[in-house]
Design goal:
By secondary structure, the chain is an alpha+beta fold. Helices cover 35% and strands 28% of the residues. It has a seven-stranded mixed β-sheet, with helices on both faces.
């Protein structure tokens, strides 16, 4: 499968990008509720993304999107600065049409490259304990599990979710 990855210089088209965000958050919420987590609405999470979009765009951060040969969005991933040479990887998501292609790995690799370009020397990520595929991928790429890092956007926005999450770090 031919995939084209874009490193956005400005915010992506809201109408086109929002459905993928909604799909991403709906999947997380459904999986979280299966393990006893709280109910949540995708709308607030999508609004939160658009309100903080500047953190994921140059010169501060990085937002990637991936398209298949037909031009359809099949993946995304963000990177935001935390200060002091640190960055946080957020919202890596691959739609079913892009899974099994190595796209998740590529989105992580491209954000590591972007972090280096931005002068970052360590990266942090958080994910849910049920995301065994993401945990495995992060660990294969050199991330180590750590305690909660204080700048975690997910933890700071939703501290009640900490018991369902793991936190990771990679020194660059």
């Amino acid at each position: 499968m031919s995939i084209h990855i874009t490193r956005h210089k400005e915010a992506p088209d809201r109408e086109e990008f929002t459905p993928m965000l909604e799909e991403f958050y709906a999947q997380i919420i459904a999986r979280l509720q299966k393990i006893g987590g709280p109910e949540a609405k995708t709308e607030g999470l999508v609004v939160e993304f658009w309100e903080t979009i500047d953190q994921y765009l140059p010169p501060k951060g990085c937002l990637l999107s991936a398209r298949n040969a037909a031009g359809a969005l099949v993946g995304m991933g963000g990177l935001r600065p935390l200060g002091d040479g640190k960055g946080e990887m957020k919202r890596v998501f691959v739609r079913p049409a892009g899974r099994g292609t190595g796209l998740g790995r590529t989105l992580i690799e491209k954000r590591i490259e972007a972090a280096r370009d931005l002068g970052m020397n360590s990266l942090f990520a958080d994910t849910f304990k049920f995301s065994v595929e993401m945990i495995s991928l992060y660990e294969q790429m050199g991330f180590k599990q750590i305690d909660i890092y204080p700048q975690s956007a997910s933890y700071n926005s939703h501290p009640e979710l900490a018991k369902y999450m793991i936190f990771l770090k990679k020194d660059l």
